[in-house]
Design a protein that fits this description.
The chain is of the alpha+beta class and 584 residues long. It has helices at residues 58-65, 124-129, 131-134, 138-160, 201-209, 247-266, 279-286, 312-319, 337-349, 376-386, 401-418, 464-467, 496-506, 515-520, 535-543, 573-578, and strands at residues 20-32, 37-43, 46-52, 72-81, 96-107, 164-165, 171-172, 183-185, 193-196, 214-222, 234-243, 276-278, 299-301, 323-329, 356-362, 365-367, 393-399, 429-433, 438-441, 446-449, 476-481, 484-491, 528-534. The chain has 3 domains: 9-107, OB fold (Dihydrolipoamide Acetyltransferase, E2P), CATH 2.40.50.140; 141-276 and 431-552, Bira Bifunctional Protein, Domain 2 (BirA Bifunctional Protein, domain 2, 2-Layer Sandwich); 277-418, GAD-like domain (Gyrase A, domain 2), CATH 3.30.1360.30. The relative contact order is 0.11. The protein binds one RNA strand of 77 nucleotides through β1, β2, β3 and α2.
Length: 584
Amino acid sequence: MKIHRDTACGELTAADAGREVALGGWVESARDHGGLLFVDLRDRTGVVQVVFDPGKDQELFRTAEGWRSESAVGVRGTVRRRLPGNENPRLRTGEVEVVPSEIETYSVARPLPFDVAHADAVDEALRLRYRYLDLRRSRMLENLRLRHRLFHAIRQFYTAEGFVEVETPFLTKSTPEGSREYLVPNRQEPGTFFALAQSPQIYKQLLMIGGLERYFQIARCFRDEDMRADRQPEFTQLDVEMSFVEEEDVVASTERMLVETVRDAAGIELPHPFPRITHAAAMLKYGSDKPDLRLPLEIVDLSAAFGKTGFEAFARTLAAGGVVRGLRVPGGGALSRRELDGLAEEARRRGAQGMAWLVAEAPGSFRSPIAKFLSEAELEALARETGVEAGDLILLLADQPAVAAAVLGWARLWAGERFHLADGAPWHPCWITDWPMFEWDEEEGRWYATQHPFTMPREEDLPLLEREPARVRAMKYDLVLNGYEIGGGSIRIASSEVQNRVLKAMGVEGVERFGFFIEALQYGTPPHGGIALGLDRIVMLLAGASSIRDIIAFPKAARAADLMTGAPAAVTPAQMRELHLRVT
RNA sequence: GGAGGCGUAGUGUAGUGGUUUAACACACCGGUCUGUCACACCGGAGAUCGCGGGUUCGAUCCCCGUCGCCUCCGCCA
């Protein structure tokens, strides 16, 4: 390397005029006038213009003319103010330019598979295949910087609070419940497998038993489930656990951490204290356990108003233990018939028996296919309960509570999107508390846990564990931000006796797999609890990105494929033999 | 596992109510150009219209299947 850079491109200003500098970077663009060549040189700090004049140095000019976009090059030269009138106010370094005296071509770039400078519109699959080029965009670089700033702030926060970051194993033991795991064949003993950790849950509890008292970890987790825009097969979690604490301690500490680190990393002020909403209230009012509170829409229960309805469809549902609920969409009367019918169709696709719509044309006057089935008193109650005004839309639905919540919850989000209700709205974190310990699974005909089996039931509900599981509440709290679940935690079971009862009540199979853990609980377990936060989702929200892929350096595409390396891929027969594996 | 959307030069798009030379912009190659910064201008090359099958005299277009990507449902204790 002849030219060893000593200055950053993006930081040159008029104050540097006259300085001799050595720069290194990539050719962002070149404008060749034949008798004059402008090259924009970019490094991680920004862009500066380099001017080549064949009248001054024919050889330099010739060489630079051959530079292709995105080639890696070095330039030694003198900074000078641009001639008056030739400044570029849109460039941070636009007052100056560099007159080269020596240049070096580190590496010429082949013609590119896509235009790096304007890659926003490029097919994402192509961006993923050439991720290293995609990362050169300032947008991507800034996302990774933001991610780093947040992680750094988190480590600073917990370090200052006396927490210790401890690494826990990736290669661990398969657990009977929970998400599908990635398995790693064990060469040493045919037929045995490790599982990649789906979370450090058991290990962090063992650390509490081990006396760490305050633990955190920025941990990678692995789950072999289908993907979403906010889900990757491997993702990063902030894992925290504390001893001798109650629910309030974890919630307060986490809230303080998030407010401070988000302020430090992104300059965003989260309104706090975060509101707390019970799980039951969230399901009723927002139809979701991760409500987007930016949307000023609330679902209203109208079961009482329709208690004596003559409308057969509603009456039948109510008699069968169902509910009638409505959602008022201000200004929703502007929707076309086609959109309204589309809504009802999607509602059915999502499991509802149907969804009715009513448009308020004037106070007390509704346009709707079902208006004729409803009595004056019912329409009056409907208007009163929803607070409907002329021009509004009411979506009305009678179904089992879970279906009503899910479908109106979806409709609420749809309306938010359709009418841009969240655009520019302030950040809206909240806690979801008082989760039920169990929910009934209709299909499998059994109770299943709404959280992992180590969550402590409320003391006063313990006697109900075997008799009335539906009424047992969990000491669990979820953290929600703008409609995304960004974290969840709980107070853990610190007694082997209770742990056994809960595992049994959950019908966990293969309880003996947890034997080592049950035993560990018997040697002096402090009361403890903690939380885990999805850092990828948090960074995504802070970055204003719409997918978690945009804030992960090397994310996977659908079907968990790495489009760049081609993983997953077949391995050699020799590798298979060594691992005692055969593909069937 | 299921539903929907997309797939046309390197990139982004257009197009064809079925038959001709598949169009435009950027990028690329060659040329002109001393103040550009989306440089400009002239010229050129570049596409088995994702893949396979079917219907047809003829398919990029219609039908079926398949693959890939994206979004959603299920799933994610």
